[in-house]
Design a protein that fits this description.
With about 120 residues, this protein is mostly helical. It is about 55% helix and about 10% strand. The chain has one domain: Winged helix-like DNA-binding domain superfamily/Winged helix DNA-binding domain (Arc Repressor Mutant, subunit A). The chain starts with a helix and ends in a 12-residue tail after the last helix. The model has no long low-confidence stretch (mean pLDDT about 90).
Length: about 120
């Protein structure tokens, strides 16, 4: 990811409602959420949410997939990973102890979900 692309991604997330929507989508991975669920969960009017989802989609931070009569939105974890990697790459300048607090703050993010066997 290049500098201009990172600026676009960060600019997209530099708005409170879009940041909330994106965080909700990240938390809903890998299933995603229907637009109506997002609207109801965050208390965002449908037309306003539609605009925010379009901006997230243009920035390639989210994408939608039609399922029957709904569009299920998912976060693009690949885009997030690329932007975060760009920000943190070479952060330590050869001194890994400098980045240790950053890395420890990210891991472990959560316990893996157990798969249910039927």
């Amino acid at each position: 990811m290049d500098k201009i692309r990172v600026v676009d991604v960060l600019g997209c997330l530099a708005q409170a409602t879009r940041l909330e929507v994106f965080r909700l989508l990240v938390a809903a991975e890998p299933e995603g959420l229907a637009a109506g669920e997002i609207s109801q969960t965050l208390g965002i009017p449908h037309n306003t949410l539609s605009n925010h989802l379009a901006i997230l989609t243009r920035a390639e931070l989210a994408w939608g997939e039609r399922r029957s009569r709904s569009i299920i939105y998912r976060a693009s974890l690949a885009t997030l990973s690329q932007a975060l990697t760009y920000l943190a790459k070479d952060c330590c300048g050869g001194h890994p102890e400098i980045c240790a607090p950053l890395i420890s703050g990210l891991t472990p993010c959560c316990a893996p979900k157990e798969k249910r066997h039927a």
